[in-house]
């Protein structure tokens, strides 16, 4: 709402907000009634702009537009017209600027979120015109979409997509691409469901055996699986016997005995393992925004023995876990390349094979996340631990084992990189037998 402000000796000015930014212009010495009439006219013009019943001429500032009653100032030179960015162009510019400073996995998430945003709002949507009704319409539409295992898309997933757009918007304000505060105040999300706590295999199996759980509920329970120490050793032994590549077993052991994330394992270098100092350096990208940091985890004797043996036949290169030769389901190390996908994929076998060629022998290089995930799952799929969803289970197990042995919380935080109490709280129940013993000792 436009307001009137009296200045010195009967001089007035009008103040108003446009796209979240405070604007003003001076009327000079006029009567109070004239100033209030002008403020009402400014409100009317702003309302018409919001309803898109009128448009500002190219190159005209909002202050000049309302000060001259919605007409271009006669004789005033306008600034060169700058094309308003579309949602697709805004996305591309944001990714181009931030691609080098963010982890590939984070970039993949941003691209996926923008894919859904563009599909709902349109690639030609004028990002500067984004308003709360647009966001609410997007949230409502996504809430009706299907998720995994026939379940509705979770509120947490929708919220992450909005957070991605908000982060990009805040970047855009600094770059001059958009103006004002991100318009999400009052945004309503569907009711969220709390994720199940981390649980042992026995706890999960008892719940499933009780019946009544839908497929998506059972899948969520297995996502919450964590392994106790004997189970960690059992799963690692299965991997050792079933492994098809020499890097899988030592990489799994490093995850289990350091709590490192998959992306951190892939970044590790041979020199990050100091056998003399008995320490493993973990290269982080998540703890400090825009900066690579490290943390140090003690090197256990068992892990040192495994890594020494692995390094005797290391294929070369500075990455600790690397590979040379063919790797199934790899985008850079499969036997052939040039396979078609998507709309380009031919409907005939001959057409599909026409673009396929034998790949040259790849050089030694680091692993990709897809390679690590695929071959980890292959090693366990025929065992009772085929229910494990991914590499993060080792991190859960590492924290749980340390906590159950009474390791100081400050040491655990240092080893795994936890910084907030919310992160710690997720793992405090990961040693039920220890908690039960403590309570039994207190109350008998």
Can you describe this structure?
The protein is mostly helical. The protein has three domains: 3-67, no CATH class; 87-175, Tyrosine recombinase, N-terminal domain (DNA polymerase, domain 1); 226-324 and 363-438, Orthogonal Bundle (hpI Integrase, Chain A). Helices cover 46% and strands 11% of the residues. The chain is built from 18 helices and ten strands. The protein has helices at 32-50, 62-67, 87-98, 104-121, 132-143, 155-175, 201-209, 215-223, 229-242, 248-258, 262-267, 301-311, 349-353, 369-380, 392-404, 409-416, 421-425, 432-443, and strands at 3-6, 11-18, 21-29, 273-274, 279-288, 291-298, 322-323, 336-337, 357-358, 365-366. The protein has a three-stranded antiparallel β-sheet. Strands 4-5-6 form a three-stranded antiparallel β-sheet. Strand 5 (279-288) and strand 6 form a beta hairpin. The termini are far apart. Mean pLDDT is 84; it is low at 77-81.
